[in-house]
Amino acid sequence: MKHNKNLNLTLMILLVLLSFSCRAQQIQIQEPNLSDNIIGTWLSNEEPTHKLVFTVNGLQQSYHNNTLSSTFSYSITTQCKLQTLTTNYDIFLKVIDLEDNEVFCHLLNGIHTDTNGVITLSITSERGKLYLYTKQ
Q1: pTM of the model
Q2: Quick check: 2 pLDDT over 90?
């Protein structure tokens, strides 16, 4: 009887550890896809004169009326400042202002392709504002 209790406890611990391992693998799988798919030029759906350019070397450039207005470094991560995201598919778009090193932790809601092939980037700012961009 005691042997069965030890076996059950061991199996439960193993199951919990496996579930954490699967969660880590989901994040690792999702991040590279987002990291690849975010590269390119994105036009604001709300303000067509505003665009973001994400480069392969980790820069986010903001343009207004085709004039560079700011440059940030960016990363796609589950940790930003003192926050760690643990919910499935929650990811930060962490941007750092290259002029003053200020860090912003936006939620990267996703990159989606509709049935017509239009690719949309959805970001929620630290302040809770939703921004939508269309890939060019």
Answers
A1: 0.72
A2: no
